[in-house]
Design a protein that fits this description.
The chain has 184 residues and is an alpha+beta fold. The protein contains six helices and seven strands.
C-alpha cells in the first residue's frame, strides 16, 4: 500500500532471499524504483543495479536539454566543487544538510547557490517556482544536490544504456509489463 515503488524494492528483495535458494546478482527495474537508498542497498548486497533513472525518458527531449535551470545542463567543476550557469556565473557549495527519507534513510545534500543573479537576462528561465513569495528580482539560483545519488544514477545510466543493459531492459519490459496487463 505505497503510492510509489521506491520503498518496496528492499523489502521485496529481502523476502526473496529468505524464500529462494539463490540470489539474483542483477536487479532490473523501471524508474519507479530509483532512489539513493535502493542503489546503496543493492551495492552493499553485492547486486548490480539496472534501474532506469527517473529522468531517463524526459532527458531525451529538447525541452529537457534546453532547460538552463537544470543542474544536468550546467557545467560542473569537480576540482572547485561548483556549477556554472548559462550566464557564466558560479554556483558555489554553501553548506551540506542532512535529510531523512520516509523510510528513515539519511542522506547528505549539498546546497549550491549563485550570488550574482541580479540583472541576469536568463533569470526567469533559470529560476522556477511561481509559488515563491520572494519577488523574482530578489531570488538567487539554488541547487540541492546529493552527490551520492548523482554518482549512482550515472553508474546505472551507463549500465542500462550498454548493449547488455538494453537487452535486460527489453526482456524486463516484455516479461513484467505483459503480466501486469493480464492482471489488470
Amino acid at each position: 500500500a505505497r503510492p510509489t515503488d521506491t520503498r518496496t524494492l528492499i523489502p521485496f528483495l529481502q523476502e526473496m532471499e529468505l524464500i529462494l535458494p539463490f540470489k539474483y546478482h542483477e536487479i532490473v527495474t523501471d524508474a519507479g524504483y530509483e532512489s539513493e537508498e535502493n542503489y546503496l542497498f543493492l551495492e552493499g548486497n553485492g547486486q548490480l543495479a539496472y534501474i532506469k533513472p527517473q529522468t531517463y525518458e524526459s532527458s531525451k527531449t529538447r525541452k529537457y536539454r534546453h532547460d538552463i535551470g537544470r543542474m544536468e545542463n550546467m557545467v560542473y567543476n569537480k576540482e572547485k566543487d561548483c556549477y556554472q550557469c548559462k550566464n557564466g556565473q558560479t554556483l558555489t557549495a554553501q553548506y551540506e544538510k542532512k535529510e531523512q527519507t520516509a523510510s528513515g534513510y539519511r542522506r547528505t545534500v549539498t546546497v549550491y547557490q549563485c550570488s550574482r543573479c541580479s540583472g541576469c537576462p536568463h533569470k526567469t528561465e533559470c529560476i522556477k517556482g511561481n509559488n515563491c513569495k520572494t519577488p523574482m528580482e530578489e531570488r538567487q539560483k539554488v541547487l540541492y544536490v546529493s552527490k551520492k545519488m548523482k554518482e549512482k544514477r550515472q553508474e546505472a545510466l551507463e549500465r542500462i544504456t550498454s548493449d547488455y543493459g538494453t537487452q535486460l531492459r527489453m526482456n524486463r519490459s516484455i516479461q513484467a509489463e505483459g503480466s501486469f496487463a493480464n492482471i489488470k
